């Protein structure tokens, strides 16, 4: 600025010189005129007087002008010195402020990066937990599916057993204890299927909620990763100095938001959103752990209940088989004794037949004797002891034959009854054999392939 002031003084000096030359110039002109124009002396004198009058008039103004120029130059110089000092102070203050602002910005960057890192770490932990829970719930879903599939075999076997037992005949086709246990077992399996299906639906819904929470956490983590990378890269930017090229680059100015303007999220909103996501994940974890415990309990309960009911039904089959076998053994014993009696009765009938045959000859002889003795002459036709004895013999033989015939008839009726009883016993034994075959060979053997195990 001082140099500028000195350069501004040069034109003022030249101007003074010109004014001095103008002041001296009239005298030289006047002498030239007087020497060249002697004839016009009056005019020259008049002009000289006029010039002197002008010099007397403008000389104070010239001095005042010089003083004013000096004062103005001094004022400008003082201003320039003051401006230079202010400029130095401004540069120093701006430099110090820039350093302080940069330091504060770095501190804020470190704090912000630390905050993002902290919440990112918390979200990473929740994401890891959610992924682990998702795998565990997938395993739970598989277990429930296997348990549901395992219910098909007991249900199929139960239906087949009921169908087999409907093939029983006669008195054995009764709604016994086995039938009731099979029906109750059927209800148990169907109830277990309904419970497992409902639980499977709950697990699927929980997995959907876990995936939703996982997607939200992953989106939040991705946003925080981008923000963290931006802040880390931005915080490491170095302060740039002036351009070393001859032509300085134009200064870029970025719009600065006013304090009254509100951004999308405040730090408290941002932190609240992070906490909300964490609380959502924690709630999902808590619900999932509770559901896992419930699923484990349901699977164990279903397996235990089905196993208990199967054992009860198997024991009912065992008891029923023992009952039927006992009844069959009793029938077989009766049949054996009946057959023995039939053989004895056959021998008795045969003996009666022989006895009857043996009595026909004596009766015929007795009757012939009686008829022969009736042919005696009239005077000799005496009712003597022989006639009386023959009559008694005849009556005794007739009575014996009657009794033998009656006994033979009774024996033959008893024989027919024994034969009928034998046939009934054999039929009942066949029924029992069929019932035993159905329960022991078909049902029990089929049920041995059903193994209830927890999944």
Automatic annotation (TrEMBL):
It holds the Pfam family Tektin. It is found in: Cytoplasm, Cytoskeleton, Cilium axoneme; Cytoplasm, Cytoskeleton, Flagellum axoneme. The keyword Nucleotide-binding does not apply. Residues 1-38 are annotated as: Disordered. InterPro entries: Tektin-like, Tektins. Keywords: Cell projection, Cilium, Coiled coil, Cytoplasm, Cytoskeleton, Flagellum. The keyword DNA damage does not apply. Residues 70-140, 328-355 form a coiled coil. Its main location: cytoplasm. GO terms for cellular component: axoneme; microtubule cytoskeleton; nucleus. It comes from the Eukaryota. GO terms for biological process: cilium assembly; cilium movement involved in cell motility. Microtubule inner protein (MIP) part of the dynein-decorated doublet microtubules (DMTs) in cilia and flagellar axoneme. Forms filamentous polymers in the walls of ciliary and flagellar microtubules. Belongs to the tektin family. PANTHER family: TEKTIN, TEKTIN-1. This is Tektin. It comes from Tigriopus californicus (Marine copepod).
């Amino acid at each position: 600025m001082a140099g500028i002031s000195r350069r501004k003084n040069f034109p003022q000096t030249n101007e003074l010189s010109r004014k001095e030359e103008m002041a001296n110039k009239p005298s030289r002109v006047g002498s030239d005129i007087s020497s060249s124009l002697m004839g016009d002396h009056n005019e020259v004198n008049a002009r000289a007087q006029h010039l002197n009058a002008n010099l007397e008039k403008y000389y104070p103004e010239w001095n005042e002008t010089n003083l004013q120029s000096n004062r103005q130059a001094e004022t400008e110089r003082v201003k320039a010195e003051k401006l230079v000092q202010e400029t130095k102070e401004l540069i120093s203050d701006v430099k110090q402020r820039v350093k302080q602002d940069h330091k504060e910005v770095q501190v804020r960057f470190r704090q912000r990066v630390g905050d993002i890192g902290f919440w990112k770490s918390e979200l990473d932990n929740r994401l890891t937990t959610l992924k682990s829970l998702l795998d565990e719930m997938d395993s739970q879903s598989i277990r429930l599916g296997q348990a549901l599939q395992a219910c098909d075999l007991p249900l199929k076997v139960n239906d087949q057993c009921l169908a087999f037992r409907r093939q029983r005949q006669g008195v054995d086709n009764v709604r016994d204890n086995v039938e009731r246990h099979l029906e109750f077992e059927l209800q148990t399996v169907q109830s277990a299927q309904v419970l497992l299906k409902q639980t499977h639906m709950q697990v699927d819904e929980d997995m959907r909620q876990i995936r939703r929470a996982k997607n939200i956490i992953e989106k939040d983590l991705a946003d925080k990763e981008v923000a963290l990378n931006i802040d880390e890269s931005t915080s490491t930017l170095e302060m740039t100095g002036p351009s070393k090229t001859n032509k300085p680059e134009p200064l870029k100015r970025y719009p600065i938001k006013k304090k009254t303007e509100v951004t999308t999220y405040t730090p408290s909103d941002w932190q609240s959103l992070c906490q909300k996501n964490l609380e959502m994940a924690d709630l999902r974890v808590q619900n999932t752990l509770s559901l896992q415990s419930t699923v484990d309990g349901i699977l164990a309960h279903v397996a235990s209940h089905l196993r208990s009911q199967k054992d009860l039904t198997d024991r009912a089959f065992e008891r029923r088989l023992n009952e039927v076998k006992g009844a069959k053994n009793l029938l077989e014993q009766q049949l054996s004794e009946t057959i023995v009696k039939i053989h004895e009765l056959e021998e008795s009938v045969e003996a009666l037949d022989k006895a009857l045959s043996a009595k026909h000859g004596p009766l015929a002889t007795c009757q012939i004797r009686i008829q022969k003795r009736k042919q005696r002459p009239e005077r000799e036709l005496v009712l003597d002891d022989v006639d009386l004895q023959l009559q008694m013999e005849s009556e005794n033989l007739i009575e014996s034959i009657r009794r033998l015939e009656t006994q033979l008839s009774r024996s033959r009726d008893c024989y027919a009854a024994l034969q009928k009883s034998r046939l009934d016993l054999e039929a009942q034994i066949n029924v029992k054999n069929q019932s035993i075959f159905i329960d022991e060979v078909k049902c029990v053997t089929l049920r041995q392939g059903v193994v209830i195990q927890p999944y």
